[in-house]
Amino acid sequence: MVNGAPLYFDVEGAExxxxxxxxxxxxxLLLLHGGPGFDHASFKPxxxxxxxxxxxxxxxxxxxGRSGGSDPATWTLAQxxxxxxxxxxxLEIEKPYVLGNSFGGFVAMxxxxxxxxxxxxxxxxxxxARMQLDLIVKAFTRRGGPAIGQAADDFWSDIKADKxxxxxxxxxxxxTVKAPMDGPGRARSIMRPEVLEHFSGKGGEMWGMDFRDSxxxxxxxxxxxCGDQDPITPWECSEEIIGLLPKATSxxxxxxxxxxxTFRDDPDGTFALIRxxxxxxxxxxxxxxxxxxxxx
Length: 296
What we know:
With 296 residues, the chain is α/β, with parallel strands linked by helices. It has a single domain (9-131, 180-291), classed as Rossmann fold. The protein has helices at residues 77-91, 103-114, 133-144, 146-157, 164-170, 184-188, 193-200, 205-208, 235-244, 262-265, 267-278, and strands spanning 9-12, 16-19, 22-25, 28-32, 55-59, 97-101, 121-125, 222-227, 250-255, 290-291. The strands form 2 sheets. Strands 1-5-4-6-7-8-9-10 form an 8-stranded mixed sheet, with helices on both faces. Helix 1 crosses helix 2 and helix 3 runs antiparallel to helix 4 (146-157). The protein is globular. The chain starts with 8 loop residues before the first strand and ends in a 5-residue tail after the last strand.
């Protein structure tokens, strides 16, 4: 139970592993899924390979997936961010690495704002500091043509729960370049489209969200990942984020020929960067990510 709600989580990899005559503690990587209204399933099995180097924890946000918390009044960035810290406090997780993908990145940025210094580092994957509909429509048009651009405009201008499945079928295939968004992970997801409508519909918190004021004050190390063909959180969004974060502790890698969630289109390159950021495993350069700022 975290902040009054039961939160579902799954774990891959031990925290303590034998190392000679002692036990060595591995870093914890806490994954915050996208949506809202989906669950952690889209991270599997891709992130399983990191369990040799870190304890990987998959968390379903409040009100989503297998987690409880059915009161829409608690479906807010502040609550979801406080749940991250509350979850870690409950399980006595100290200094986690927190990866937020897409909507999970919104939660991660609110977590950075509300709980500075709590994380060992934060990975902002395919996300944005604010939503810019004109930029999104332009990117979808560039990616899939005018019809897809118009379909994206129609959906994001007036999000309704009953429009989610048609949108997923028509538009979401353009989210990625090489790996399908509607693969096994997405098919296994428990969908809660009412959460998406609440957060992202007309008057929802998403459209007033703006982290431009808080990012310059971030004290935690941050790794920003984006794909150059991502239409829903275009690479320009990550450029804005890295331009606001402190240069000494932040780094952006933009992946060519990749879409939304670079772990889908370039898992090897993405996981090499994550391992390097956490200071574990092999740090072989993939030749994919293009570093934009000073290394962490």
